[in-house]
Amino acid sequence: MEREVDARGLLCPEPVLLTKQALDALGAGTVKVLVSNAAARENVSRLAESRGWQVEVREQGEEFLLVLTKK
Amino acid sequence: MNGKRMLVVAAGGTLGLLAVVLVAMGNPANMGYCVACFLRDITGGLGLHRAAPVQYIRPEIIGLVLGAFISAQVTKEFRAIGGSSSFTRFVLGFLAMIGMLVFLGCPVRAVLRLAGGDLNAGVGLLGLAAGVAVGVQFLKSGFSLGRAVPQQKGNGYIFTGLMVVLLLLLLVRPSFIFFSASGPGSMHAPVWAALGAGLVIGVLAQRSRLCMVGGIRDFIMFRDAHLLYGFVAIFVVALVGNLVVGTFKIGFAGQPVAHTDGLWNFLGMALAGWAAVLLGGCPLRQLVAAAEGNTDSALTIMGIILGAAVAHNFGLAGSPTGVPAGGQIAVILGLIVVFIIACANRPAAVKRGVSIGKGS
Q: Which of A67, B36, B83, B291 could potentially form a cystine with A56 if both were Cys, beta carbons 3.0 to 4.6 Å apart?
């Protein structure tokens, strides 16, 4: 299962809220989250890690793609 | 304790320490650092309100923005963005300021006041938490001000440029700038100490994303206490500092630059908390975001400045003698307007990560 969240241009807590909805809906698998500021990158990472998801951060120009995975 | 947690604790602890030091060097009591009070003083210094006791170009604000700007440049986190319901943000900034000036302080000063023994600030903090809790319900049910989009880089520099102009006005002291001869505006630490403290806090706040409203919000929404650690650090360090210096005095009555009207302390901060949580952060965070190139946050600060001008030109602000009737009416009207804004912006324009009408 895979899901994508586009949280570009959103201020916290919205990126975290959208990510949480995706994580809760999926339970396990891969969630790709696109964010455009460093605070959102950290907050989404913190949420995912606290729920046992692994976080991989990829820089894409001015944006960050966070790949969250859980088996 | 991981690195990020240590950073937010270090930022809060440093702010708490510098606040006590700035009071010892001349700032008003329990006002070593206050974003709302200092923006009000700057508003007065520019002559946009004529309340003679609260006029000064506060270097703490200039330093904070310059520090955050430099930090964002070094870490390459500077992004010129904007266009997320900009004028609504301006209005929310305006309303939050009315609430903060009825209470007499921003969330940072509320914590510093409490650390000085001012129990009225405890009432204000309860109001702040209540306002944030109400705002969180709207966020949970889909409130959003929409996406910001990238802008030409130059847009992001204007706000910091404005701070450089303020610094020049402070140093040159042209005759059209107002400096209080008495009252809180006349009490200030030396320019370079205040500027330096602002720079340090600006860098740390940018790195740690320190935000009081965000801390309460994240705790309510996600049981995430990360940002609250910063404010616990402010409180603990400022409390110890006040005890050491001998400026701790517990009670409700006779507290410096404060009043004892609990209802309006509560409602004023509830208005501020509700508006700020819809904005995504407290005034401190808005200043930092503006320095990072967020032009919506820059406009929010302009709303705060208009709020200061209106609060003092029309006699709405609280004072040690209490809250005038006009201020009480303004807070009630403000709560009604925030309620309307909160209702009007949900369900969100952004759903499940897809913008309506954009299809991205």
A: A67
**Is pLDDT above 80 for B360?**
no
Range of the domain at A38: 2-70
Q: Tens of pLDDT along B241-264?
A: 999 999 999 999 999 999 999 999
Interface test with A, best of B350, B356, B358 (most A CBs within 10 A): B350
The ipTM assigned to this model is 0.93
Interior/surface letters B174-207, b for 16+ CB within 10 angstroms, e for the rest: eeebbbbeeebbbbbbebebbbbbbbbbbbbbbb
pLDDT tens by residue, B158-189: 999 999 999 999 999 999 999 999 999 999 99
Name residue A8's amino acid. R
Q: Mind listing the pLDDT tens digit for each residue in B339-348? A: 999 999 987 5
pTM: 0.95
Residues in A whose CB is inside 8 Å of some CB of B read: 4-14, 16-18, 20-22, 36-39, 42-43, 46-47, 50, 62
Domain count, chain A: 1
Say if CB B15 and CB B210 are below 8 A apart: yes
- The answer to whether the CB atoms of A18 and B353 lie below 8 A apart is yes
d(CA B271, CA B213): 12
Instruction: Find the CATH number of the domain harbouring A34.
Output: 3.30.110.40
